[in-house]
C-alpha cells in the first residue's frame, strides 16, 4: 500500500483551504508539508487567558487580553542584535512594551500602527521597570472576548503564520483524521489506558491530555525502533563472511602505549562479532581522545589477517587525510598497505588506486564518500569503519552495506557520548561498545569562565598566546533553525567577530562555518591544520574531528547558549598535545539557573559520559530530541522525558512484532507499515520490499 496516495492524510498541505504559496512556505519551514504533519503539530503549550481592563489588573506571568494603542515603534539601535519594541498604552494610560526578536518585527510593523487600538493577547512580564509582552500570541482589531478561553492551544509558528491561522489549518487536518487499524498490542493499551490513535490526536490538541500525548509519543518511538530493527534484520539476512584473524599482523604492531582495559574489551567484542557470519553492526562510542583510532586499526588488521580488505570512511577530506597519516604510520611495521582516496585524486593517481583495490595490493583504504562511488571496486571488502557516525544517515549506511560481494562487517565510531537511556533511540539497530576509560596521563584542560564584557582582555590574551607560536580556536554560537538555515543574527555576529579579529591579527586568522562553500571551508581548515593560520574562528563546524595538537587555547563566546554535551565536544579540540591547554568560556551578563549549572559542570568535569547524563538532566522534559544531524532519529513528538519513560516498552514491543512478523504482513504488521509512513521511517518499509 502506498499510504501517500491512498490516504488523504498524506496529501500536501496545499490541499487544505486557505493554503496558497504564501502560507505554504512558512508551513514548509516548520516541516509541515503534508496534512498529517499538521495533525501532528501538537501545541507547544496551553494557555488560559483573562481579559483585563488595564495593566494594573494583570499579574506578572499571567496570560492576558488587553486593549492597547501603539505610541511608538523603537527599532534596535544595532539592527539584528537587540529586540524591536512597540511602546503601547492601555486605556488608563499605563505603558507597556510589545517586544519582538528577529524577523518577527515585520509582523509588528504591520499589526500595530501607531495611534490605533488593538486587542493584544500574551504573557505579561517585567523587563526592568517596564511591563512587557514578548511576541504576543494574538493581535486583533476588534473585540477579543473570544480569546478568553480555557486551555487555548499555542502552536509553534514561523514568519508569515499567526496563531489563528495555524489553529484553523490544524482543525481542518484533524477533520481528515479517521480511525486507522491499530498497530499497538492490546496488552500495551490496557496497561496504559490509552485512547485510540484518532482520538489521541484530537485530544492532544484540545488540552494537555497526558495519555493522549504519551500514546502519540509511544507511536513515534515504536516507529523509530521498528525501522531500526528492520535495518538490523535486513543486515542479518545478508550473507556476510566470518572473519578470523590469526593475530600475525597485530603482533607486529609497535604501539608506544599499552591499550586501556576499555580498548581491549572493545577489540574483543569486535573480534567476536567478526567471527560470526552475520555481518557485524557495532557502534564504538568513545569520548574525544579515548583512542578509537587504534581500536579501528585492530579491527581492520583482523580483516587483513583474514585475507580481506578494510575501508575507513571519514566525514571530511581533512579527517580522511589525518586518519590516513596516523594509520599508515601505525600500520607500517605490519606491512599492511594503507592508501588514501578522496574526491581530489584524479587521473593516473586515481587509476592507480582503483587498480590497487581491485587486485588487492591495497589492504586498507581511507577516504571520504569517494571510496564508495560506483567506479570503486574492491577485490574483497571485509570491513567498513565509519568515523563520526552521526554524520551519516541510515540510508547512506545501507548503500555502503550493498558494496561488498558479501555484506561487509560494519564498525561505526562516534565521539558523542550519549546517555545510556538515549543510545537505544539513536542507535537501536546496533550493538554498542563503550570506551569509558581515557588513556592515562591526559592533561586536564583548565576551564575558565569570564563575562563577555571582558572581551578586550580576552583578545589581548589571545594575542599573547599566539605570540608563543601556539594556535587557538575562537568559537561563535550559531544556532541552526528547524529548517536547516541559521539565525541571521548569529551569522552576522560571527562575521563581525571575524572582521574585528582579522583587523588585529591579519591573515593569521581564518574562519569556517556551515554557510561557507565546502571547498572554502576545507581550504581554510587546512590552512589552520597546517599551521599557516594561527587563529580559527569557527562555529560548531569544528565539533567533529580535526586534530591540531598545537592549538591549545579555545575561546567560546556566549558559552551559555551551547548545550553541555556540545561544549564538551568543542573543548575536546584542545588538550591534544603535550602543552597545557585552556578553554575560556565567555558568558553573557545574565545567566539562567540552567545556564549557571551548565557552566559549572563543564568547569568541573571532563568526563563525556558524565556530562552527557547531566546534559540530559538539565534539559529534562519538554525538550525535543532533535540533535542527530542526519535527521533520522530526531523526534517530533516525543520529548526527553517521554523517551526515557516509554522507549524501553516501545523498543521491546517493536522487537516482538519483528520476531513474530518480520515481513509485516499480518494485520498488525500492515498497520505498522502505515505507522512507519506517518513518521517518515518508510526506509524501513523499502527494505521489506527489496528483501
Ligand atoms: P579518538 O577516540 O578521539 O579518535 P584517538 O584515537 O585520536 O582518539 O587517540 C587520541 C590519542 O591518544 C592519540 O594520540 C593516540 O595515539 C593516543 N592513545 C590511544 N590509546 C592510548 C592508550 N591506551 N594510551 C596512551 N595513549 C593512547
Ligand atoms: Mg578520532
The CATH homologous superfamily of the largest domain corresponds to: P-loop containing nucleotide triphosphate hydrolases
Strand order of the largest sheet: 12-13-11-14-15-10-16
Main sheet characteristics: 7 strands, parallel
Radius of gyration: 28 Å
Write the CATH architecture name of the largest domain.
Answer: 3-Layer(aba) Sandwich
Mean pLDDT: 86
Number of domains: 4
Approximately what portion of the residues adopt beta-strand conformation?
Answer: 15-25%
**Helix/sheet category:** alpha/beta
Separation of the first and last Cα atoms = 16 Å
- Oligomer classification: single chain
Task: Enumerate how many helices there are, as a single number.
Answer: 24
**How many strand elements?**
22
Low-confidence stretches: 621-633
The general outline is globular
According to CATH, what is the topology of the largest domain?
Rossmann fold
What small-molecule ligands were found? adenosine-5'-diphosphate, magnesium ion
CATH class of the largest domain: Alpha Beta
Helix content: 40-55%
Describe what you observe in this structure.
The protein has 691 residues and is of the alpha/beta class. It has 4 domains: 49-149, OB fold (Dihydrolipoamide Acetyltransferase, E2P) (Beta Barrel); 186-236 and 654-688, no CATH class; 240-435, P-loop containing nucleotide triphosphate hydrolases (Rossmann fold, 3-Layer(aba) Sandwich), CATH 3.40.50.300; 446-605, Rossmann fold (3-Layer(aba) Sandwich). Helix content is 40%, strand content 17%. The two termini are 16 Å apart. Mean pLDDT is 86; it is low at 621-633. Bound molecules: adenosine-5'-diphosphate (ADP) and magnesium ion (MG).
Amino acid at each position: 500500500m502506498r499510504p501517500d496516495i491512498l490516504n488523504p492524510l498524506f496529501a500536501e498541505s496545499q490541499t487544505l483551504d486557505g493554503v496558497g504559496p504564501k502560507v505554504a512556505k512558512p508551513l514548509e519551514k516548520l516541516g509541515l508539508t503534508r496534512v498529517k504533519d499538521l495533525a501532528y503539530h501538537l501545541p507547544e503549550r496551553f494557555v488560559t487567558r483573562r481579559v483585563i481592563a488595564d495593566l494594573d489588573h494583570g499579574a506578572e506571568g499571567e496570560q492576558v487580553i488587553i486593549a492597547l494603542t501603539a505610541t511608538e515603534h523603537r527599532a534596535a539601535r544595532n539592527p539584528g542584535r537587540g529586540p524591536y519594541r512597540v511602546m503601547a498604552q492601555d486605556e488608563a494610560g499605563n505603558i507597556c512594551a510589545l517586544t519582538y526578536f528577529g524577523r518577527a518585527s515585520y509582523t509588528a510593523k504591520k499589526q500595530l500602527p501607531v495611534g490605533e487600538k488593538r486587542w493584544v493577547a500574551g504573557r505579561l512580564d517585567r523587563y526592568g521597570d517596564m511591563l512587557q509582552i514578548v511576541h504576543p500570541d494574538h493581535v486583533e482589531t476588534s473585540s477579543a472576548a473570544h480569546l478568553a478561553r480555557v486551555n487555548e492551544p499555542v502552536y509553534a509558528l514561523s514568519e508569515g503564520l499567526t496563531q489563528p491561522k495555524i489553529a484553523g489549518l490544524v482543525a481542518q487536518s484533524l477533520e481528515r483524521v479517521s480511525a486507522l487499524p491499530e498497530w499497538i498490542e492490546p496488552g500495551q493499551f490496557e496497561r496504559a489506558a490509552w485512547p485510540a490513535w484518532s482520538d489521541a490526536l484530537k485530544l492532544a490538541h484540545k488540552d494537555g491530555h497526558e495519555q493522549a500525548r504519551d500514546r502519540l509519543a509511544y507511536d513515534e518511538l515504536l516507529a523509530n525502533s521498528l525501522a531500526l530493527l528492520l535495518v538490523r534484520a535486513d543486515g542479518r539476512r545478508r550473507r556476510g563472511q566470518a572473519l578470523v584473524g590469526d593475530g600475525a599482523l597485530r603482533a607486529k604492531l609497535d604501539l608506544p602505549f599499552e591499550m586501556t582495559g576499555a580498548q581491549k574489551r572493545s577489540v574483543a567484542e569486535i573480534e567476536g562479532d567478526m567471527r560470526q557470519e552475520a555481518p557485524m553492526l557495532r557502534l564504538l562510542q568513545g569520548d574525544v581522545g579515548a583512542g578509537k583510532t587504534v581500536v579501528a586499526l585492530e579491527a581492520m588488521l583482523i580483516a587483513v589477517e583474514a585475507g580481506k580488505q578494510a575501508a575507513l570512511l571519514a566525514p571530511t577530506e581533512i579527517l580522511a587525510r589525518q586518519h590516513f597519516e596516523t594509520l599508515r604510520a601505525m600500520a607500517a611495521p605490519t606491512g599492511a598497505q594503507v592508501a588514501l582516496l578522496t574526491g581530489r585524486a584524479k587521473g593516473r593517481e586515481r587509476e592507480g588506486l582503483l587498480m590497487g583495490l581491485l587486485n588487492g595490493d591495497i589492504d586498507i583504504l581511507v577516504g571520504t564518500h569517494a571510496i564508495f562511488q560506483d567506479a570503486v571496486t574492491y577485490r574483497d571488502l571485509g570491513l567498513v569503519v565509519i568515523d563520526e557516525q552521526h554524520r551519516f544517515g541510515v540510508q547512506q549506511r545501507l548503500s555502503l552495506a550493498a558494496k561488498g560481494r558479501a555484506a561487509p562487517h560494519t564498525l561505526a565510531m562516534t565521539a558523542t557520548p550519549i546517555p545510556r537511556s538515549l543510545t537505544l533511540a539513536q542507535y537501536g539497530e546496533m550493538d554498542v561498545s563503550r570506551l569509558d576509560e581515557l588513556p592515562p596521563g591526559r592533561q586536564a584542560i583548565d576551564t575558565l569562565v569570564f563575562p563577555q564584557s571582558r572581551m578586550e582582555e580576552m583578545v589581548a590574551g589571545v594575542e599573547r598566546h599566539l605570540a608563543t607560536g601556539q594556535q587557538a580556536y575562537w568559537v561563535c554560537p550559531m544556532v541552526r533553525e528547524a529548517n536547516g538555515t541559521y539565525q541571521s543574527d548569529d551569522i552576522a555576529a560571527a562575521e563581525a567577530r571575524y572582521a574585528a579579529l582579522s583587523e588585529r591579527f591579519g591573515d593569521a586568522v581564518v574562519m569556517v562555518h556551515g554557510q561557507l562553500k565546502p571547498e572554502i571551508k576545507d581550504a581554510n581548515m587546512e590552512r589552520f591544520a597546517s599551521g599557516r593560520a594561527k587563529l580559527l574562528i569557527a562555529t560548531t563546524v569544528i565539533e567533529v574531528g580535526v586534530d591540531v595538537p598545537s592549538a591549545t587555547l579555545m575561546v567560546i563566546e556566549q558559552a551559555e547558549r551551547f548545550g553541555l554535551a556540545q561544549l564538551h565536544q568543542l573543548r575536546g579540540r584542545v588538550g591534544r598535545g603535550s602543552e597545557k591547554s585552556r578553554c575560556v568560556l565567555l558568558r553573557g551578563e545574565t545567566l539562567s539557573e540552567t545556564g549557571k549549572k551548565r557552566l559549572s559542570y563543564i568547569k568541573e568535569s571532563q568526563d563525556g559520559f558524565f556530562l552527557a547524563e547531566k546534559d540530559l538532566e538539565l534539559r529534562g522534559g519538554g525538550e525535543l530530541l532533535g540533535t542527530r544531524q542526519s535527521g533520522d532519529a530526531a523526534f517530533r513528538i516525543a520529548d526527553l522525558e517521554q523517551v526515557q519513560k516509554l522507549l524501553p516498552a516501545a523498543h521491546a514491543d517493536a522487537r516482538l512484532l519483528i520476531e513474530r512478523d518480520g515481513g509485516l504482513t499480518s494485520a498488525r504488521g500492515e498497520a505498522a507499515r502505515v505507522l512507519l509512513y506517518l513518521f517518515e521511517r518508510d526506509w524501513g518499509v523499502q527494505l521489506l520490499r527489496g528483501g
